[in-house]
Each structure stands twice: as C-alpha cells, then as structure tokens.
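Good day; I would like, with your permission, to put a structural problem before you. The record follows directly beneath this note:
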Amino acid sequence: ENTAAIMVAHHSNFKIVGFTTEPDMADLAQLAKKYDIPLIYDQGSGCLFDTAKYGLDHEPTVLEGVTAGADLIAFSGDKLLGGPQAGIIIGRSDLVQTLKRHPLARALRPDKLCIAALAATLTHYLKGDALSEVPVWAMMEKPLDDIKKTAKRWQKQLKSAGIQSNVVEAKSTVGGGSLPGTSFDTWALELQHPELEAFNGRLRKTKPHVIGRIHENALLLDPRTVQEAQGAALVAAIQQAI
C-alpha cells in the first residue's frame, strides 16, 4: 500500500520572520495529484472568516484549503473556530473512513458534551450569526466606541467608591494559539497601585477571577473581553482586591 503523503502545516501559534517563503497550496495540490499521493493540510486555527477585516494579518481559512484541493484538512474546534477544544478532520470521504477505522480513533474520540458544544457553535455559522454569537468573533467585532464607553462606565463606578483610574488607548491580542505577534486597537481601564504585583495577584483570586495585564507600571483591563453582564462583577472584584 502506498503510504506516502504531502503534509503541509500552517503554524498559527508562532511566526517565522525574515527571508522565508512557502509553496502555494494549489501548486502542491497539483503535485500531489500528479503522483497520486494525498495532500494533508494542517490548517490549525479553524478560521472561517477573513481576519484582515480587523486590521490583522490574514489567517488562512479552512475554505481556502478546500478550494486549493487539499485531500485532508485538520484544524481545531477551539481557537478561531470558537468552540470546544477538539480536533477536526475534513476531506475526501475514503481517506476520512480510513482514519475512522484506525484503532486510535476510538481512544481519541470526543465525548457527547464536546460534540454538543461543537454542534451549537457550528449552528451559529450555518445561521449566519457567528460574528455576534461566537465569543471570539463577537469580541473582534466590538466597536471601539462601545469599548471606550464601557471603560468610562467602570471608571465612573470606581470613582464613586473612591478608587481612581484612567481610560487609555491600548492593544488587544487575539491569543489562543492564533495570529501570533499581531494586535489591534482597543481602550483599557488603567489602574495604579503601590504594590502592583500583589494587587494583580489578588485580582486573579477574586470570584470571578480577573486577569489583567501589567504594562508600564500599571494594570490594564480590556473591556473587549468582558461581556456586558459581567461588568458589575468586575468592578466589585476590583474593589475587593484593592
């Protein structure tokens, strides 16, 4: 049996810079077809939308791999797909069936809760409301004006409790193993404290836990990553930590 294959991996959690290049997927697909060997594409992030729309680097999408002619495409269920942590493989039905028959497939299969969460996530893509309902995309879609208004509201609530803060321009990063080294504009609540590391540590132990970022001797909290209903709990956690 011919077990040779062309394997292409897109590394979505780190970036190689300098004099680098990579072959075109369509050219690789032609090469694989010429020699009758499968082309396997590890896309990585599970991205289904164009990230360049948000001023970020272009993240190759799953559809681009399909269009280019890859025989199998592997990607994550979390990361930019926005669902549960899982591994997904799509492609030629005969190759997928071969994978399903492998003894490891039973040991590595997802449980019912994972499948239910994945189905719920993919349903949003099918319904066309993923940009508002899938958290990672809703965060990227959030308008800058709304982010600033939220930060201003937190600042006002803290001021009424005797706590001083500032609203400053900052950067958001996507994270989660996707789009390394890229960021886009946001507004953040800036908190000063004489014992900044200790203060940050206490915030991480509040209920709910609050994860901030220390930058230039201040703690930054990005409203982009906080849902509207979580704002009151966040302000209370800051008061508790101080």
